[in-house]
Amino acid sequence: MILTVNIGNTHITIAGYEHDTLQFSGRLHSSPAATVDEYAMNLLNLLSLYQVAPERIEGGILGSVVPALTGRVLGALRMLCSARFLTVGPGLKSGIKLRLDNLPSWAQSCYAVLWPHWRRGPDRWRSSRRYRHLHHAVNGKQELVGGVILPGPQLSLSALVQKTAQLPQIDLSAPASSSILGKNTSACLQNGFVLGTAGLLDGLAERFQAELGPDIRFYATGNLPRTIREACRTPIEYREYLITDGLYRIWQRNRKGS
């Protein structure tokens, strides 16, 4: 089994592949206070939950946007098995060309999510996570030409509720009301975050299309609620395992000697 590990700001996603097929996918909380031993115990429990013995792990790959956790998670993996784990970043073959001023961490992490779709022809990818939206643009030459970063709806909602005295927490997975005119506080918040975020994404999509051409396809992964995706006028295809599939593809391209 090949293990893929994606360390995000909120969750660590672990998936296992055998014979090019996804066997399981699970999540752990990203805890900046957790020790190597604690991560090892959590990983062992997760593998046990899906009936995967550590001896079955033949190799793996790790992608991370949280540098402080990378070493600890790698250390925990090494406690569980002796398999070699690759780390996404410079030096790995990804098939992507970066037309950027430098190589920020978000560009390194997007190798994995972009790769699965280059082989199918799309030239655009969109991803949403709890702490930020990452929008990366890929042209017809398979070059990452840039992107934008902005807060995700969960982070914005959390900040608003924490900084105000009388605004309640709401469930972003619940749909907005049929009218833009909310009749109570909860409905106003629901409309603002569901319809407002959808309008923001539609506005960005229009700008991407204006600069890169109209034949752009949009993909979503991560924790962006379905209600927001469905409220967008821009067609968005959701791929739940986009990141884990991408990590596995990169492992395949670099597995020699693993």
Number of helices: 7
- Unreliable stretches, pLDDT < 50, 5 or more residues? 108-134
Work out the number of β strands: 11
Q: Please summarize the sheet with the most strands.
A: 5 strands, mixed
Helix and strand composition category? alpha/beta
Helix-strand string: EEEHEHEEHEEEHHEHEH
Shape call: globular
Distance between the termini: 13 Å
Q: Tell me roughly what share of residues is in helical segments.
A: 25-40%
Average predicted local confidence, pLDDT:
83
Biggest sheet: strand arrangement: 3-2-1-4-5
What key attributes describe this structure?
258 residues; alpha/beta; five-stranded mixed β-sheet; four-stranded mixed β-sheet; 7 helices; 11 strands
Describe the structure.
This protein is 38% helix and 22% strand. It has 258 residues and is α/β, with parallel strands linked by helices. The protein has helices spanning 36-49, 67-80, 105-118, 153-163, 185-212, 226-231, 242-253; strands at residues 2-7, 11-18, 21-29, 59-64, 84-87, 97-98, 124-128, 133-138, 143-150, 219-220, 237-238. The relative contact order is 0.15. It is globular, with a radius of gyration of 19 Å. Strand 7 and strand 8 form a beta hairpin. The model is unreliable at 108-134 (pLDDT under 50). The strands form 3 sheets. Strands 3-2-1-4-5 form a 5-stranded mixed beta sheet, with helices on both faces. The protein has a 4-stranded mixed beta sheet with strand order 6-9-8-7, covered by helices on one side. The two termini are 13 Å apart.
